[in-house]
Design goal:
Strand content: 15-25%
Number of helices: 15
Oligomer: single chain
Largest sheet: 4 strands, parallel
Number of strands: 15
Strand order of the largest sheet: 4-3-9-10
Distance between the termini: 38 Å
CATH topology of the largest domain: Rossmann fold
Order of helices and strands: EEEHEHHHEEHEEHEHEEEHHEHHHHHHEE
Helix content: 40-55%
CATH class of the largest domain: Alpha Beta
Length: 460
């Protein structure tokens, strides 16, 4: 298996540090508003990575944090007149409910910054003792100039970072790019006692401390969105390796492309959100997963109703292939070996899920053809369900209405009559074109002894 490693800037063979065990840390959400489909894209991608690693025989220990103390949480709680903890509890529950609905496996540990204050403070103290950090007016800053390879993840120089960043002037800093490890307390904000006075940790040090607490000084995989490469993950590397004198902090850095709405990244700060709840009102969980996985995880993806609706129809085609009767068991069973080889080759190639999905649809098409000819398709159905499970597909039937069926019925039955005549004339290629065209419109056919039956799958 090969993965693109952001640190190396290339695709590398995946070899964990400890044989069959994989230590994976994924940056979690800041819970101050509803979980949106941009979150879903990222966590579906890492869910598939974990599922595939486990399919390959690895034992994965998956840790994913919540950033539960943050300026935005404090501000939103003040606006609503509730405590930050009440706000966090609400949106952590929302996150779990949405991820469960999308069949995203839960991490083994979900540490929260507010519950890990002692190891966070200890890590900061280690950095101060090693002269990598310095207190200044109640805050503590990290010295970027003392880290010789600062910038190695984002492949930028310190001067280049400074030129391209909007750095707030702070006379207490030794260098403009020095970043905060500990923030001195402000009136009305939550705070904790520390050797530098009351305050709370900076964002970057939280992840460093929680990752090392639960996974040790070296991780196998550290993941998150591409928007976290700089400054968040860059700063994590610097402070982690400085605190432990151990390199690398993570062997592989895996970053997913971002979900866009129009031309802009979907984000809470921009306010251009489609919540997971809103998406699930219109589309099934499988169709959303198919939509996310139809694009390579490192590529940007634009969210669209047209795309999701097309994947709803595609999900129906897969379900139909699994639900059909196996026929009269005439002839040889469909050989699923080549499909499995192609699927695994795609997944081994930096999780190329678009190619892997193409294999599933090829298998479903050929399964239907074999079934139409009376062949035994049970082994093919088993293989389709098993490979689809690696992608987290459930193949569960969504709720659907009947109005579209009634409106489409005369046109569909005319096409079915034409297809029947073509099959009688042994014009199988043209008959298959009608079948596949109807499939693309969500019309699922099944040839039985009583004639051709059809169902119309649609949502939203």
């Amino acid at each position: 298996m090969k993965l693109y490693n952001t640190l190396a800037g290339e695709v590398e063979e995946f070899v964990p540090s400890d044989g069959q065990s994989v230590k994976m840390y994924i940056c979690g959400v800041t819970p101050y508003s509803s979980t949106h489909v941009g979150h879903a894209l990222s966590y579906v991608a890492f869910d598939v990575l974990r599922r595939y690693l486990e399919y390959l025989g690895y034992t994965v220990r998956h840790v994913q944090n919540f950033t539960d103390v943050d300026d935005k949480i404090i501000q939103k709680a003040q606006e609503e007149g509730i405590t930050p903890q009440e706000l966090v509890d609400r949106y952590v529950d929302d996150f779990f409910r949405c991820m469960d609905a999308l069949n995203v496996q839960r991490a083994h540990v979900y540490p929260m910054a507010t519950q890990e204050m002692s190891p966070i403070i200890d890590t900061i103290q280690t950095l101060v003792d090693k002269d990598y950090a310095y207190p200044a007016g109640g805050d503590v800053f990290f010295r970027v100039t003392k880290s010789n390879d600062y910038g190695k993840l984002s492949h930028r120089t310190l001067d280049g970072m400074q030129a391209g960043a909007r750095v707030e002037v702070d006379e207490r800093k030794e260098h403009p790019m020095d970043f905060v490890l500990w923030k001195g307390a402000k009136p009305g904000e939550p705070s904790w006692e520390s050797p530098w006075g009351p305050g709370r940790p900076g964002w970057h040090i939280e992840c460093t401390s929680m990752a090392m607490t639960y996974l040790g000084e070296t991780l196998d995989i550290h993941g998150g969105g591409q928007d976290l490469i700089f400054p968040h993950h860059e700063n994590e590397i610097a402070q982690s390796e400085a605190s432990t004198d151990t390199r690398p902090f993570s062997r592989y850095w895996v970053h997913n492309g971002l979900l866009q709405l129009g031309e802009d990244k979907m984000s809470k700060s921009l306010g251009n959100l489609v919540s997971v709840d809103q998406a699930l009102e219109k589309y099934s969980p499988d169709s959303l997963r198919l939509y996310f996985l139809s694009s390579h995880y490192r590529s940007p993806l634009s969210y669209s109703d047209e795309g999701c609706a097309a994947m709803e129809r595609s999900a129906g085609r897969l379900r139909h292939a699994l639900a059909r009767e196996t026929g009269g068991k005439k002839g040889d069973p469909l050989d699923t070996g080549p499909y499995q080889e192609r699927f695994l080759a795609a997944m081994d190639d930096d999780l190329n899920t678009p190619r892997a999905l193409a294999v599933l649809f090829d298998l479903a098409r050929d399964l239907n053809r074999a079934g139409d000819e009376g062949g035994d398709v049970r082994a093919a159905q088993y293989s389709l369900r098993r490979l689809g499970g690696i992608l987290g597909l459930t193949f569960q039937e969504p709720a659907s209405g009947g109005q579209e069926q009634l409106a489409a019925k005369p046109f569909i039955e005319l096409l079915l009559d034409t297809r029947t005549e073509l099959r009688k004339a042994k014009q199988y290629e043209m008959a298959d074109q009608i079948r596949e065209g109807l499939d693309q419109q969500g019309v699922i056919l099944e040839d039985t002894a009583q004639g051709t039956q059809w169902q119309y799958h649609s949502r939203g």
